[in-house]
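Record 1 of the preview.
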Amino acid sequence: MKAFVMKAIGQVGFIEKPIPRPGPNDAIVKTTRALICTSDSHTVGGAIGQRENLTLGHEAVGVVHEVGSNVKLFKPGDRVLVGAITPDWGDPASQAGHSSQSGGPLGGWKFSNTKDGVFAEYFHVNEADANMARIPASVPDEVAVYCADMLSTGFMGAENGNIPIGGTVVIFAEGPVGLMATVGAKWCGAGLIIGVETVPRRQELARTYGADVIADFSKEDVVQRILNLTDGQGVDTAIEALGTDTTFQNAIKVTKAGGTISNIGYHGQGDYVHIPRVEWGVGMAAKTITTGLCPGGRLRMERLLRVLEMKRVDPTLMTTHTFPFEQMEKAFEIMDKKMDGVIKPLIVF
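->
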């Protein structure tokens, strides 16, 4: 089969690989649609170290090609969604309620980290009964694929944010994850949603998905703007959806005492992120910092697919480009360099 891989840090391309085979509890999926994520760029840039000929990608849907002897819920021909995070469900961390951390910090993140990812004609799924979900007939592949990561991670940002009904929320960066965090904040009952973004198309989408106000960091001091919008109190919840030291610090600065900073950004550069001491209340302002890795698992995926089946949200508004798998190198470059107004590129197999 053809696979799109990280050959080394800073190098990508196609190679031929054998079609994987399933273990007793596993499945092999024939890929039909995939999405490129900024974290794929972080990986190629060296954020998690050297990898050699590692198949990239963690967002995909497809058709079951083969299942192991112990798989009970799926059969060849089933159309399925696989979460970006595929935990080991018997691990103590999973039993403690932290399945994304099974096997160690970030241990549920296997695709394009500790095993080959989904940018291939076929991919392997561990613990298939627990990590795949059947896609409803009314949900097209190009819609369902957004559940793998963008909806799951974005909604987690709101879920972890302790948003009170009628509360105030700011989302730092309205990329795909931030946009879905905006939807999540709206559904959690936020009374005022502020999006921090400078790209006009992303600003427009943020408003479409629920942002009441846009603060543009290229034109204004966003910290002061957010404080002005909240009568100097700060927000109940700040969602950091970019993964930079500056936005993380700003999230703390604009959160009121007793509020929550929900970090869902991938901090892929630098050795440290910094906490502003005074705005943190010199460590005693009761500001909670929550973090999390995209939730995975069949139950989570089934719930997200139900949201799409009921047409609660249309994630395809974020699809700015569509490429056949054969043009993966071009698609990856556009996403990596943020060219041509890209938000999310869809890959068709």
